[in-house]
Amino acid sequence: MPTKGMGRPQRKEMRIVVIGGGTGLSVLLRGLKYEPVHITAIVTVADDGGSSGRLRAEMDMPPPGDIRNVLTALADTEPLMEKVMQYRFSAGTGLAGHNLGNLLLAAMNEITGDFVTAVKALSGVLAVRGDVLPASTQSIQLVAEMTDGALVAGESQIPLAGKKIKRVFLEPSDAAPLNEALLAIADADAILIGPGSLYTSIIPNLLVRGLFSAVSRSTAPKIYICNVMTQPGETDGFAASHHVQAMYQHVGEAFLDTIIVNSAKLPLHVLEKYAEKGAKPVRCDLKQLRQLGLQIVAKPLVTFEDGYLRHDAHAVSRQVVSLLKRRRRS
């Protein structure tokens, strides 16, 4: 697959669009916000579990959880404010289980009458570095078709089904993206996909009608940041190339230029901890990735925090910026 150029005059500040959701996206953004780039995060809105799912059902609004995490990750705030945004009530009739940041977004949604305006308003309060946009403002349900033909509805239920996923799709299938998201993609100097849950955080964004078309039309390099570990119920046994192929199968074309994948060997005690939950390291299958025509960046890119493996946000961000700078010079 040919590598595409920038196709536009160079700017001092590169504009990067990041597409995804879940914890992985938030971790990446915590590092990327310190780089000399302008960030637009396009975030999945298919969540139906926990506090987000309750607010979605009761207030007829997009689920705020992934948006909240991204806002917090990009915020230029005191540590106490981050704790406030992430605080989860443990007691109280109707309050138990709710996250305060989710409630703030729900309140802003009620006050402004529009979810996108609510996100922008809270972005201003938190001094967010960049723009945060939902992939769509419509109520979207994610459905998975399993290899045995069974259908499982709901983002939170899919990994619990204990079956192999054949494909996922959206209901309604014609959910429309924000025009602002399309404009950001058209103006991007780079498009980052991931990291995050493949079938429940990344692919749902690519299925929003018009969003992937904009990605496909863009001449900006498209970089996939591969997960470090497999996810039980989603990507059991997947190597890096399987993640790429799953995306290609869902959108109907090969669109990535580069994959960033962890090459660090993980300590035995970490492997054992994850093995208990059915997770294993995502294998960097170089031969298969090369056959897919991808530029491969394989580096030690992980850190171990609070008992969990995470991408080293600063190391990954430096790799992304280094790639783009080299591309500009070539």
TrEMBL record:
NCBIfam families assigned: CofD_related
Keyword annotations of the record: Cytoplasm
GO cellular component: cytoplasm
Compartments reported by the entry: Cytoplasm
Species of the source: Brevibacillus panacihumi W25
InterPro entries recorded: CofD (IPR002882), CofD-like_dom_sf (IPR038136), Gluconeogen_factor (IPR010119)
Record-stated family: Belongs to the gluconeogenesis factor family.
Keyword Membrane: no
Listed PANTHER family: GLUCONEOGENESIS FACTOR-RELATED (PTHR30135:SF3), UNCHARACTERIZED PROTEIN YVCK-RELATED (PTHR30135)
Predominant cellular place of this UniProt entry's protein: cytoplasm
Protein name according to UniProt: Gluconeogenesis factor
Gene Ontology MF terms in the entry: LPPG:FO 2-phospho-L-lactate transferase activity
GO BP field: regulation of cell shape
Purpose of the protein: Required for morphogenesis under gluconeogenic growth conditions.
Superkingdom per UniProt: Bacteria
